[in-house]
Design goal:
single chain, about 300 residues, alpha/beta, Rossmann fold, formyl-coa transferase, domain 3, 2 domains, 6-stranded parallel sheet, 3-stranded antiparallel sheet
Length: about 300
């Protein structure tokens, strides 16, 4: 018996956000049927996100295809889609249409900018949502340009995972009410929530956060990335005072302990010291020396 083995989903989504969401739920046991159009090269998205799912092709531009989908939806618990707002209504497979024959249906739409509002009809990808949300503004070195994070934060963190949470919340609500509901997930909205740390810093200081210039973005020696002798990099996350003290004492720098958050000349001295120190050994050597120390240390793989 799996946690969600009693639930059935029809997944119309493509690319990354929707398939990632349905994979999370399929891994928990939900019976996911991927419905794709014939000859679609992106039908199953990333191959390993097709695991634990069944699939079929269906031409939703034909009356017969739409009727088959509506019959499937009449017996489904969840429909997941990632079309631009308005597309499913034009196809006659939108939430209002489907819930007429299945009032218990949970219908989740993942889009860039939500189902209403001034940006609803705009196209976009992860990079655009991160830019609008301000997340991209905080990634990169001080004085440099914004840097792409290398992973799809908006697609996964702002879209897929929040969609999974929303679907599960709707399932829980249905247990009480007997009714399904519409779950509107905007990847822009979900990405804005990732700025919570910078909002906190602004509330505390009244100062707008700066790229590469905050406690957790490279301003201080205690929370930073350092290059090693072999051109690799290590991470130091000695945020708490006791971790920082352990790090400083390991390197014989007791004088650094009380200056963890110094913003004057001491800050530059500490940064210069650790940059030079970590260049003295290879990544493997540092892992043997510091890997098990209580300083929050690790490699950049």
């Amino acid at each position: 018996m799996t946690a969600l083995g009693h639930l059935k989903m029809l997944d119309l989504s493509r690319q990354l956000p929707g398939p990632f969401c349905s994979t999370v739920l399929a891994d928990l046991g939900m019976d996911v049927l991927v419905v794709s159009v014939p000859n679609d090269p992106f039908a199953l998205g990333i191959p390993f996100l097709a695991r634990n799912k069944r699939s079929m092709t269906l031409n939703l531009k034909t009356d017969a295809g739409r009727e088959i989908f509506r019959r499937l939806a009449a017996g489904a618990d969840v429909v997941l889609e990632g079309f631009r707002p308005g597309v499913t209504a034009r196809l006659g497979i939108d939430y209002e249409t489907l819930r007429a024959s299945n009032p218990r249906l949970i219908y989740c739409s993942i889009s860039g900018y939500g189902q209403d509002g001034p940006y609803r009809d705009r196209v976009g990808h992860d990079i655009n949502y991160l830019g609008y949300a301000g997340v991209l503004n905080f990634i990169g070195a001080a004085g440099g340009p914004p840097v792409l994070p290398g992973v799809q934060i908006a697609d996964i963190g702002g879209g897929a995972l929040l969609a999974a949470v929303g679907i599960l919340a709707a399932v829980a609500a249905r247990e009480r009410t007997g009714q399904g509901q519409f779950v509107d997930v905007a990847m822009l909205d979900g990405s804005v929530a990732w700025n919570v740390y910078h909002l906190l810093m602004f509330q505390l200081s009244g100062r707008l956060p700066q790229r590469g210039g905050e406690q957790l973005t490279g301003r201080h020696a205690c929370y930073n990335v350092y290059e090693t002798r072999d051109g690799r990099h290590v991470t130091v996350g000695a945020y708490e005072p006791h971790f920082w003290a352990t790090l400083c004492r390991h390197f014989g720098r007791e004088d650094f302990v009380a200056s963890q958050w110094d913003d004057g000349a001491k800050r530059e001295e500490m940064l210069d010291f650790f940059r030079a120190a970590f260049r003295e050994k290879t990544l493997a050597e540092w892992m043997r020396e510091l890997g098990d120390k209580a300083i929050c240390f690790g490699p950049v793989n």
